[in-house]
Amino acid sequence: MAPRKAAALRQGDGRSLREHLIATAEQLVSARGTAGLTVRAIAREAGVADGVLYNHFSDKEELLAHALRAHVRSVEGTLGALPEPGVGTLEDNLRTHLRYGMALHRAILPAFTGLLAQPAVLARFGELDGPGRDWRDRLRGYLRAERELGRLAEGARTDAAAALLVGICHETVLSALFPHTAHDSPAEDDIIAAVLNGITA
CA-to-CA distance for 139 and 32, rounded, in angstroms? Predict the structure, then answer.
């Protein structure tokens, strides 16, 4: 093992060098975002030569995708548990999901906006996990389960309801990027009421 590689792993945490590189990149993403983040900056922070990264990742895009996933998982770990189907009220559970989604999107937005000009990274990120792992999929699963339990109407369009809640999160958070188009967001209770009760007379 090269001396610089050995120095990078003198942490006693049992991580492989690949894991160390992902963790280092995730720390940089969390602290500085992804705009202008270079292989050299990651390598220096990790304590390895630039070329070492290519021994463990096919390219910079693969490393950044893994770092993004680690960043999202790290943020999710601070947001608490999501409600279980059949427990508590629908209103409270959807409110918890909405707050979770808002907090998640606010926390990860800086990292993703820096990658708008790098679609390859975003594509790699999307390929890392199968369906069911992200918040949107868990929200869909929750609503479907509530429908199966009979707490939502038999014909409830749960995927559409989930898309509305996800859209509220996107619209609210993305408005921060375009303050000239920002407007007052609907009240949380009004959002939940609209999803559960609709808007017809």
Answer: 30
